[in-house]
Structure formats: C-alpha cells, structure tokens
C-alpha cells in the first residue's frame, strides 16, 4: 500500500499570514502523496461581522442559516482555498482546490433538527476515495475547503476536523494513511497554560482522565474525538502537532501521537 499523508490546518494558523506561509512551506517539503483540509472559522466570523451577520457556535459547530452559508462558502471555498492553492503552486506543489461538492468527493446530509437547529450544517455520509485517488494519480494535491453537498443539491457547512477524519478513514481503504492535525500549539498539552507540557503519547484512558480534570477542553475535545475515530477505523497513525513542525512530525515524530 502506498503511503498517504492527510493534513488538517486550523483557523488560528490560517488567520496569521506569516504562520500560514511557514506551514505551507513545511507541508510542501513532505515527500509522497498528500491531501490538505483547511478550516478558516476565525476568518468566516470576521467577514460575517463586517457584513452585520452574527456568529453563534454550539458545541464548536457554527449555526449556519442561509446568509451564513453564503459567507462560509465564499470564505472557505473561495478566499481561503484559493489563497492556499496559489501559495502551494508557488512552492511547486500542484494543488487543486476543492469543496466536497467538486467531483462529488464528499457527500453529506443536512443535520437533522433535534434539540438544536444547526441550519445548513452537513453530516458526512460518503467520501468518494476513488475519485480522490484519481486526482492523486495525476500528481495533484487536493486542498479541501470544509464545504460539502447533499443529494438535494444543497451546499452544507461541515467541521474541518470531521472532514479530515472522514477523508482519512476512506482513503485508508487504498493507502497507508497518516492523519495530522496541525494548529498553533506544540501538541495536546497536559497543562493548557504551559506550552511545553506536550503529551507525547495519548491513549483513550489518558484522554478520559485529562477531560475529566478539565485540562483537555474546548475545541480540543471534538478534535480528539475525530482523531481517535480515525485511528479506530483503519488510519495507521494520527498526530497532533504545531503547524511549523508538520514535516518533522511526519518524518521524525513531534507533537502528540495517539495510541489505542
Ligand atoms: N490540553 C489542550 N492542549 C492543547 N490545546 C487545547 C487543550 N485544551 C484545549 N485546547 C484548545 O483547543 C484549541 C484547538 O481547537 P480548535 O480551536 O478547534 O482548533 P482549530 O481551529 O485549529 O482546529 C487550542 O487553540 C486550545 O485553545
Ligand atoms: C459546521 C462548522 O462548524 N463548520 C466550521 C467549518 C470551519 C472549521 O472547522 O474551521 P476551523 O478548523 O478553523 O475551526 C465553521 O464554520 O466554523
């Protein structure tokens, strides 16, 4: 099986042009086939505010009414995606920018209303890994924005961590997949106030302990839930690391590695 690196980059890095360029430079140096999934939640919130549209997040997920869907489609599928693709081209990576609607790569269903109506938020149903393989065989590097589509022809807003996990799991049918979540800290921290307290190996029991103690909280909880799900469903390796360290994390090891 060929190796494949699936990398997710988060909104705090994308929001910082110098940090984004450092990340993309490191990303471009990783040998072999790779896929990038980007977030951009912070920029979407800023653009929405400029347009007088209020942001509401519930459990780390954006309530997405039609005006907000227009904003996230423009910001993730347009601005952020194309800026990343252009920078990768300049770094000699032949990137192709995609949403999940493009080439039918990531199909979702509008999240059913239970206690909360999330609006136009998508839960992923199917990844067309054969189609993604086709891009990789053309030596293209797919760069996914966190937008999916439904059989009804809707665009849907989908959390980027979840999208990365779902793509990695489906690609694991064809490849030996390493999934890397990159953000602005050195890894999962034992003490969120101490940037050097990186947990080098995290298993589900240790995760549960830190969660109960409150030392793993907020956005790190859904990120780790997605990360462990990938590990349980065929992804060979999952790493959480600083965006600057992505190449060394993949090649030598850095940040936090998840274990079963
Ligand atoms: N133990 C922890 N170690 C590292 N980060 C943590 C921890 N607990 C909570 N966090 C928070 O989780 C955030 C990452 O989740 P999130 O904001 O969803 O990231 P991204 O947008 O990059 O995907 C970090 O910025 C940090 O504030
Ligand atoms: C449904 C939902 O919440 N979608 C996310 C998609 C972007 C994202 O996940 O961006 P980060 O990785 O930068 O947080 C949102 O709109 O915020």
TrEMBL record:
Annotated site, Transition state stabilizer, chain positions: 8, 223
Location in or out of the cell: Cytoplasm
Residues annotated as domain Aspartate/glutamate/uridylate kinase: 4-241
An example Gene Ontology biological process: L-arginine biosynthetic process via ornithine
Record-listed E.C. numbers: 2.7.2.8
Catalysis: reaction(s): N-acetyl-L-glutamate + ATP = N-acetyl-L-glutamyl 5-phosphate + ADP
SUPFAM superfamilies for this protein: Carbamate kinase-like
GO CC annotations, alphabetized: cytoplasm
Functional pathway: Amino-acid biosynthesis; L-arginine biosynthesis; N(2)-acetyl-L-ornithine from L-glutamate: step 2/4
Binding residues annotated for substrate, in chain numbering: 40-41, 62, 157
Highest rank taxon of the organism: Bacteria
Primary localization class, coarse: cytoplasm
Keywords per UniProt: Amino-acid biosynthesis, Arginine biosynthesis, ATP-binding, Cytoplasm, Kinase, Nucleotide-binding, Transferase
Single GO molecular function: acetylglutamate kinase activity
InterPro entries per UniProt: AceGlu_kinase-like_sf, AcgluKinase_fam, ArgB, Asp/Glu/Uridylate_kinase
Any one Pfam family match given in the protein's UniProt record, by short name: AA_kinase
Translocase found in the keyword field: no
Signal peptide residues on this chain, from the entry's feature table: none
Biological role: Catalyzes the ATP-dependent phosphorylation of N-acetyl-L-glutamate.
HAMAP family: ArgB (MF_00082)
Family: Belongs to the acetylglutamate kinase family. ArgB subfamily.
Descriptive protein name: Acetylglutamate kinase
UniProt source species: Spirosoma terrae
Organism lineage: Bacteria, Pseudomonadati, Bacteroidota, Cytophagia, Cytophagales
